[in-house]
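Q: Sequence in, structure out?
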Amino acid sequence: MEIRLKRTTEAAESSDGARFLVDRLWPRGTRKESLRLDAWLKDVAPSTELRKWFSHDPAKWEEFQRRYFAELDARPEALEPLLAAVRKGTVTLLYSSRNTQHNQAVVLRAYLLRRYGKPPAH
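A: Exactly. Output:
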Protein backbone atom coordinates (compact mmCIF):
# COMPACT_ATOMS: atom_id res chain seq x y z
CA MET A 1 0.00 0.00 0.00
CA GLU A 2 1.77 3.14 -1.19
CA ILE A 3 0.18 6.40 -0.13
CA ARG A 4 2.04 9.61 -0.85
CA LEU A 5 1.38 13.14 0.34
CA LYS A 6 1.73 16.31 -1.71
CA ARG A 7 0.78 19.94 -1.39
CA THR A 8 -1.59 21.17 -4.06
CA THR A 9 1.11 23.62 -5.18
CA GLU A 10 3.49 20.78 -6.10
CA ALA A 11 3.56 19.63 -9.71
CA ALA A 12 1.77 16.43 -10.69
CA GLU A 13 4.03 13.54 -11.70
CA SER A 14 3.21 10.27 -13.41
CA SER A 15 4.55 8.43 -10.34
CA ASP A 16 1.77 10.01 -8.22
CA GLY A 17 -0.73 7.40 -9.32
CA ALA A 18 -4.30 8.30 -8.44
CA ARG A 19 -4.50 11.82 -6.99
CA PHE A 20 -7.17 12.80 -4.46
CA LEU A 21 -7.77 16.21 -2.91
CA VAL A 22 -8.61 15.58 0.76
CA ASP A 23 -9.45 19.14 1.85
CA ARG A 24 -13.01 20.12 2.74
CA LEU A 25 -12.51 23.50 1.05
CA TRP A 26 -11.11 24.11 -2.42
CA PRO A 27 -7.52 25.45 -2.17
CA ARG A 28 -7.49 29.24 -2.26
CA GLY A 29 -6.02 30.68 -5.45
CA THR A 30 -6.07 27.36 -7.32
CA ARG A 31 -8.01 27.03 -10.56
CA LYS A 32 -9.90 23.76 -10.89
CA GLU A 33 -8.45 23.21 -14.36
CA SER A 34 -4.88 23.51 -13.07
CA LEU A 35 -5.05 20.80 -10.40
CA ARG A 36 -4.79 17.33 -11.89
CA LEU A 37 -6.77 15.01 -9.69
CA ASP A 38 -8.93 11.93 -9.91
CA ALA A 39 -11.43 13.13 -7.32
CA TRP A 40 -12.09 15.72 -4.64
CA LEU A 41 -13.03 13.74 -1.54
CA LYS A 42 -14.57 16.33 0.76
CA ASP A 43 -16.25 13.63 2.84
CA VAL A 44 -12.94 12.16 4.03
CA ALA A 45 -11.73 15.57 5.22
CA PRO A 46 -12.22 16.56 8.86
CA SER A 47 -15.59 18.09 9.68
CA THR A 48 -15.85 21.86 9.51
CA GLU A 49 -16.08 21.97 13.31
CA LEU A 50 -12.94 19.87 13.78
CA ARG A 51 -11.00 21.77 11.12
CA LYS A 52 -11.83 25.12 12.73
CA TRP A 53 -11.05 23.84 16.23
CA PHE A 54 -7.66 22.45 15.17
CA SER A 55 -6.63 25.45 13.07
CA HIS A 56 -3.26 23.74 12.40
CA ASP A 57 -2.17 24.33 16.00
CA PRO A 58 0.62 21.82 16.79
CA ALA A 59 -0.38 21.94 20.47
CA LYS A 60 -3.71 20.33 19.48
CA TRP A 61 -2.13 17.72 17.20
CA GLU A 62 -2.59 14.60 19.35
CA GLU A 63 -6.23 15.41 20.11
CA PHE A 64 -6.88 16.34 16.48
CA GLN A 65 -5.61 12.93 15.37
CA ARG A 66 -7.82 11.14 17.91
CA ARG A 67 -10.92 13.10 16.89
CA TYR A 68 -10.25 12.75 13.17
CA PHE A 69 -9.74 8.97 13.51
CA ALA A 70 -13.14 8.84 15.26
CA GLU A 71 -14.74 10.78 12.41
CA LEU A 72 -13.21 8.41 9.85
CA ASP A 73 -14.38 5.38 11.85
CA ALA A 74 -17.92 6.81 11.75
CA ARG A 75 -18.01 7.07 7.94
CA PRO A 76 -16.13 4.14 6.37
CA GLU A 77 -18.10 4.48 3.12
CA ALA A 78 -16.32 7.80 2.43
CA LEU A 79 -13.02 5.87 2.25
CA GLU A 80 -14.15 3.50 -0.52
CA PRO A 81 -12.74 5.53 -3.45
CA LEU A 82 -9.34 5.69 -1.72
CA LEU A 83 -9.32 2.01 -0.83
CA ALA A 84 -10.30 1.01 -4.37
CA ALA A 85 -7.50 3.16 -5.80
CA VAL A 86 -4.91 1.82 -3.34
CA ARG A 87 -5.77 -1.74 -4.39
CA LYS A 88 -4.78 -0.76 -7.95
CA GLY A 89 -1.54 1.08 -7.12
CA THR A 90 -0.01 4.26 -5.78
CA VAL A 91 -2.26 6.97 -4.35
CA THR A 92 -1.31 10.58 -3.63
CA LEU A 93 -3.28 12.60 -1.09
CA LEU A 94 -3.31 16.30 -1.95
CA TYR A 95 -3.66 18.99 0.70
CA SER A 96 -3.34 22.77 0.69
CA SER A 97 -2.00 23.40 4.19
CA ARG A 98 1.37 25.13 4.45
CA ASN A 99 2.14 22.95 7.46
CA THR A 100 3.51 19.74 5.99
CA GLN A 101 3.67 17.87 9.32
CA HIS A 102 0.39 18.82 11.00
CA ASN A 103 -2.43 18.46 8.51
CA GLN A 104 -5.33 16.12 7.74
CA ALA A 105 -3.54 14.30 4.90
CA VAL A 106 -0.83 13.15 7.33
CA VAL A 107 -3.51 11.78 9.66
CA LEU A 108 -5.55 10.23 6.86
CA ARG A 109 -2.49 8.42 5.53
CA ALA A 110 -1.66 7.08 9.00
CA TYR A 111 -5.28 6.01 9.46
CA LEU A 112 -5.38 4.12 6.16
CA LEU A 113 -2.08 2.38 6.84
CA ARG A 114 -3.06 1.37 10.38
CA ARG A 115 -6.54 0.16 9.46
CA TYR A 116 -5.90 -1.38 6.05
CA GLY A 117 -2.15 -1.78 5.57
CA LYS A 118 1.04 -1.86 7.51
CA PRO A 119 1.63 0.67 10.32
CA PRO A 120 3.72 3.71 9.39
CA ALA A 121 7.34 3.72 10.54
CA HIS A 122 8.18 6.27 13.25
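The longest strand covers residues 3-7.
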